[in-house]
């Protein structure tokens, strides 16, 4: 309600010819760090299996001997609820979400795959694990680091030094496994976020479901992770209400049911996602091109992040000026914060949790979209700028993800 009132005030000011009022940073709906974000999921499950030094941060979940997390890339809570006909089985499970409260989890900020998978696998917020965006500046080199594609190459164990929950569980005698596309077996992101136990690569979704069930049965205590990416892929390319996206939702709905019907005894299956998605109109008002906007470029050395969650790195000495300009130009459509403000507000994790090595990776200015708008970069990021479906910010459509549960 507070955010809606603020928006009405802004509309009134514009009608009166006044400058738009910047969004209050406190109006941004933060991730539920500590009690209900993706970072708490695996520690909660593993703590229930007796893995030491982990805390059950999501109090609604009940322990199980065998736990499975099926992460569907890009399937947000709001998209799922809007498509019951395409996903009848998943829809039937909505009431089971988050320990049968019928409530979603949040992802972390930014709501993007590299950040979310690192939080899932390490059990840490971005402020600690150090993947606070799609692309961020490497303070050691001054260059942008793409944390999804891992370019340019950076030593994974230096970039993210904490052990994964899978490694901790394996050390405690829990049978751990990951079942995914063979493409991901040796990627640096897998190494720093999801490694531990055995990796099993299977191309078809059906094979993954069947092998996941077998891996769950392979131990008296098991922790198994499986993943499907194409819901996100079709959403980016065609939009989250396209026929192609709907077809992928129908397919993954059948996959979840297939796995649920094959669960061994004493198993809890959790179906979740790394972020939601929103379609952005293909017009100049909705897509602000950084590469064509001299005001936004002034004083900026590097543009990182992605369209709805930007890290802006200023030329030394220009930090204050860049913040002022970005807030004046975009502040009624984006939450625009300095690095210190974004940390103090808890965007990347609870205040006080930012590792020293992570501090310089966060932009001098951080801009998170409030409206249906993106900051593209048509020259620097032609592929990303052409996408229909986008994500990254703190709006409910991007932040809220399901935590559907099936028990055997």
Please specify the SSE layout and strand pairing.
Elements: H1 2-15, H2 41-48, E1 66-72, H3 77-81, H4 88-92, H5 97-100, E2 105-106, H6 113-122, H7 126-129, E3 135-137, E4 144-146, H8 156-159, H9 165-171, E5 175-180, H10 188-193, E6 198-201, H11 205-217, E7 222-228, H12 230-238, H13 243-260, E8 267-272, E9 278-279, E10 287-289, H14 294-297, E11 300-306, E12 309-314, H15 319-330, E13 334-338, H16 339-345, H17 356-359, E14 365-369, E15 374-376, H18 382-385, E16 389-390, H19 396-399, E17 400-401, E18 404-407
Helix pairs in contact: 11-13, 12-13
Query: So how many helices?
Result: 19
Q: How much of the residues is beta strand, in percent?
A: 15-25%
Helix content: 25-40%
Order of strands, widest sheet: 6-5-7-1-8-18
Global shape? globular
Structural class: alpha/beta
Distance between the termini: 41 Å
> Describe the biggest sheet?
6 strands, mixed
Provide the low-confidence segments as ranges: 1-16
Kindly state the number of beta strands: 18
Radius of gyration, CA atoms, in whole angstroms:
21 Å
Kindly report the average pLDDT value.
95
Can you walk through the features of this model?
The chain has 19 helices and 18 strands. The protein is of the alpha/beta class and 408 residues long. The strands form 6 sheets. Strands 6-5-7-1-8-18 form a 6-stranded mixed sheet, with helices on both faces. It has a 4-stranded antiparallel sheet with strand order 11-12-14-13. A hairpin with a 6-residue loop joins strand 3 (135-137) and strand 4 (144-146). The chain is globular, with a radius of gyration of 21 Å. Residues 1-16 have low confidence and may be disordered.
